[in-house]
Amino acid sequence: MQDNISVKDYIRDILDVQAKNYRTLVEMLVNEVKSELKTLRSDVEDIKTSLQFTQKDVDDNNKKILEVEQKISLKSEMLDKAVEGLEDLENRNDYLENQSRRNNIKIYGIPEAPVETWNDCEAKVKKALVDKLGITEEITIERAHRVGQHKKRQQRSMDKGGPGQKNDEPRPIVAKILHWKQKSRIIEQAQKKKPKDVTFREDFSSRVLERRARLIPELVKARNQGHTAYLVMDRLVIRKTNENVNDNVSVNVPQVPNDVSL
After folding, report:
1. Rounded to two decimals, what is the model's pTM?
2. Looking at residues 71-99, what average pLDDT do you find?
3. What is the pLDDT of residues 11-60, one digit of tens each?
4. Which of 70, 73, 96, 129 has a Cα at 20 to 30 A from 146?
5. Which of 68-72, 104-108, 245-249 has the lowest mean pLDDT?
6. 102-203 CATH choice from 3.40.718.10, 3.20.20.70, 3.30.70.1820, 3.50.50.60
């Protein structure tokens, strides 16, 4: 079973390839700059140790040192711009990736059979929505599948000395909901019901998940102080209590490309 490639996925794939190629170029530039900087710094040391105590030699060597320092400054500036360009490209790619995941939900704790089709996963998700969240309306799921390494493959990898962990936990299921409003209702119900054995979460890129993890201590601190705090993607929203309405909301805003529109 294959899905039709959407424009967003196509653009994201192109940007991902560009990011990889750009990263390779940057790495080559970094290595070249490091090598040249090493040579230039060695030249500076040689010049300094060979200084003669005549004014002419001192002036000539000072001129050479100035030229070398200018080259170092130019190379450092080129390196900074390359790194900045790579970071901007990765931010754009990450933004598009999260846009493509906008209608996804990730479900943990649904038992996994040795062999499952996408239809099996979809049926299990719909059953969990009814049993765990009480959602009886018809939810349109475009696709549903397990993510992560299958237990048998993981075990073979471990037997060969590869990474992995022995556990009986089923792999999570990622389900793409056709309608965004239905996806939002599922998340809202999950936050209200809080079922113990099955967890429903939004699906984010690894970079967003890393940023969310870094915000957890601040979120816990705000809640311990009696404030209402929650995460919106990689933003921490704090609604303070016993304060002026105008100062009621504190938001950590992520860096999102301004000129990307879908």
Report:
1. 0.57
2. 85
3. 777 877 777 777 787 788 778 878 888 888 887 777 766 655 556 667 77
4. 96
5. 245-249
6. 3.30.70.1820
Closest CA to 105 of 214, 217, 198, 5: 198
Whether 30 and 79 have beta carbons less than 8 Å apart is answered as yes
Cα–Cα distance for residue pair 144/127, rounded to 1 Å = 13
Structure tokens given for 202: 């939004």
Beta bridge partners of residue 144, listed in sequence order = 175
249 burial type by CB count under 10 A (0-12 exposed, 13-18 middle, 19+ buried): exposed
pLDDT digits (tens, 9 = 90+) for 128-175: 999 999 999 999 999 999 998 876 555 544 444 444 444 578 999 999
What are the structural domain ranges in the chain? 7-100, 102-203, 205-253
Instruction: Say how far apart CA 251 and CA 17 lie, in whole Å.
Output: 33
Contact 51, 61 (CB under 8 A): yes
